[in-house]
């Protein structure tokens, strides 16, 4: 046990482990911020205003094309998949929503679980470094010579405090970043659910142009001529032959 503790202290194994896990967490944080705040973010208000306007005008092909231009955004992708099934029954439209949501879900959730794990692991490794440092300090008090006792005690406490500080330097920003990223992820899921339901409702309740017989059955008959012909008197009946 003593040789193992000496190996950890002499080669700074715990410090390198904390730094390695912490750097992995920082890289993951930058990747998730880029994905959720840049690659997946879409101004939902203006986008849905344009889509709903095209649906109300019954221009579904144009709405699909508009969504295809922003297909890399999860909201646009889900709306596009729904509009592609607009000529089917209600069950097919609902199924399209479920499938599209399951396709974009992993992209939004990617890495967040690992980020929470990093915060916990780096804290535990820091705690391990603290314990190792305290063991070194206590061993110095119990077994070291009087001349070396103060030096070994200070060294053990230094190891413990340095490991704790290094772990907290990575754990605290990781937890704060995880909170912001988890909130953004929930916001994106909420936008997808809200606006996709609005699109489905609009597809089910589309209002078409009112029926007008003059438009549906145009007539080119000269009604004026009909009135003149109808105004002529019928010829008198022929007289009977006696």
Distance between the termini: 149 Å
Shape: rod-shaped
Q: Please give the domain count.
A: 1
| Rg calculated over all Cα atoms | 38 Å
Listing every helix as H and every strand as E from the N terminus to the C terminus, the arrangement reads: HHHHHHHHHH
The overall average pLDDT, rounded, is 84
Unreliable segments of 5+ consecutive residues? 207-211
- Output the structural class: mainly alpha
* Strand content bin: under 5%
What does this entry look like structurally?
By secondary structure, the chain is mainly alpha-helical. It has one domain (2-204). 80% of the residues lie in helices and 0% in strands. It has 10 helices and no strands. Helix 2 packs parallel to helix 8 (146-204), helix 5 runs parallel beside helix 8 and helix 6 (90-109) runs antiparallel to helix 8 (146-204). The chain is rod-shaped, with a radius of gyration of 38 Å. Residues 207-211 have low confidence and may be disordered.
Give a short synopsis of this structure:
The protein is mainly α and 242 residues long. The chain contains 10 helices and no strands.
Topology:
Layout: H1 2-10, H2 13-39, H3 44-56, H4 60-68, H5 74-84, H6 90-109, H7 112-143, H8 146-204, H9 213-216, H10 223-231
Keywords:
single chain; 10 helices; mainly alpha; rod-shaped; 242 residues; 80% helix
